[in-house]
């Protein structure tokens, strides 16, 4: 039986005004989130932005939507997961929550939880009408891509706004010491052993060090205080070109268990699969991933992924994340294979877009007017 690999790990948490406001340092493989016992009672779990790099590997020629017969298995990517760190594709199983968050935005996707399917479809229909810019009755890849970009921008703006409010004290910048006190102040009451205690290779001490490094990279004017633009880069490094190396560093650190600065085939596989028993037979999909590592990841054939090979894997140059997600959604719902979606196609596959969840309707429609 396959193990999920979702062992507990340490998560950043806040006391005071930032408790539960929404940010978690990405400190471990994207398969698990848990708060250390005893601290969870007083600290809000900080979660990663739903809008981490959307690296959906879709086969396409001249940007055409792939036909089902032409699709190959979508490869694993450690940055492609929903807000609870569940992988988009895990053990060949598709996680639609990832797509819900890309389509609606993380915050609004959560508010869909209480709606029955019929109401979810009805409200999705009104959203589809909003996406159809030229009102021709069909949703093109361009229109869907623009919607995904819109929801991403909106979520980031709102997430930064929430945390800016709690950190800035109405100032134009946030000093590092202020942020450190708000986020890591709870560490003052921990013993040295508690600070350095590791779960899955992660400790509170190392989390603080990681945030310090990310802060320094975002601090373009070197005053050790972040203005709003710099703070946005700090919270959402995957969206800022100058922060790509930070994303790369953090990903390598998460997967590189023996800390030799490179990723072996076993570490690569270990990021997505752990056997439940020592002699458990490896599933076919894991064997396929090993082939992917050899044929498409390890360019120089030395048995490891170095920094540049990891970069090509997780942050490929020129890759259009929103367009890839739009292509994926069209592939999932395009019954007649005309590379666009009708309203009925979307509603028939509503679970791909919103499932049994729906947006905070009145607020969403008011804000969607600008789209």
TrEMBL record:
InterPro entries registered for this protein in UniProt: EF-hand-dom_pair (IPR011992), EF_Hand_1_Ca_BS (IPR018247), EF_hand_dom (IPR002048)
Domain of life where this protein originates: Eukaryota
Stretches assigned to coiled coil: none
Alphabetized SUPFAM superfamilies for the sequence: EF-hand
UniProt KW keywords: Calcium, Chaperone, Endoplasmic reticulum, Glycoprotein, Membrane, Metal-binding, Repeat, Signal, Transmembrane, Transmembrane helix
Bilayer-crossing regions: 45-65
GO cellular component terms given for this protein: endoplasmic reticulum lumen
Major location category of this protein: endoplasmic reticulum
Protein name: Reticulocalbin-3
């Amino acid at each position: 039986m396959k193990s999920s690999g979702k062992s507990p790990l340490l998560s950043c948490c806040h006391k005071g005004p930032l408790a539960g406001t929404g940010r978690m340092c990405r400190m471990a493989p994207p398969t698990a989130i848990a708060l250390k016992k005893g601290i969870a009672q007083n600290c809000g779990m900080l979660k990663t932005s739903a809008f981490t790099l959307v690296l959906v590997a879709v086969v396409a020629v001249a940007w055409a939507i792939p036909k089902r017969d032409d699709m190959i298995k979508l490869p694993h990517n450690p940055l492609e997961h929903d807000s609870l760190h569940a992988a988009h594709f895990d053990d060949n199983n598709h996680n639609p929550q990832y797509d819900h968050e890309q389509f609606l935005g993380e915050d609004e996707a959560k508010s869909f939880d209480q709606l029955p399917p019929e109401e979810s479809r009805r409200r999705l229909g009104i959203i589809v009408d909003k996406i159809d810019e030229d009102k021709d009755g069909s949703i093109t890849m361009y229109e869907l891509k623009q919607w995904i970009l819109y929801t991403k921008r909106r979520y980031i703006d709102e997430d930064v706004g929430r945390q800016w409010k709690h950190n800035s004290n109405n100032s134009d910048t946030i000093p590092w010491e202020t942020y450190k006190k708000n986020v890591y102040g709870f560490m003052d009451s921990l013993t040295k052993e508690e600070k350095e205690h590791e779960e899955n290779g992660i400790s509170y001490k190392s989390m603080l060090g990681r945030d310090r490094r990310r802060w320094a990279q975002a601090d373009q004017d070197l005053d050790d205080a972040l203005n709003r633009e710099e703070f946005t880069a700090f919270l959402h490094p995957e969206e800022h070109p100058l922060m790509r190396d930070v994303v790369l560093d953090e990903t390598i650190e998460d997967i590189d268990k023996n800390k030799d600065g490179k990723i072996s085939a076993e570490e690569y596989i270990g990021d997505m699969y752990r056997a439940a028993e020592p002699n458990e037979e490896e599933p076919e999909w894991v064997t396929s991933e090993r082939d992917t590592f050899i044929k498409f990841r390890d360019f120089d054939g030395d048995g490891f992924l170095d920094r540049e090979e990891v970069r090509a894997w997780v942050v490929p140059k020129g890759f259009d994340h929103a367009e890839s997600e739009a292509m994926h959604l069209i592939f999932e719902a395009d019954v007649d294979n005309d590379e666009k979606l009708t309203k009925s196609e979307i509603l028939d596959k509503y679970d791909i877009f919103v499932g049994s969840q729906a947006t905070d309707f009145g607020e969403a429609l008011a804000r969607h007017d600008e789209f």
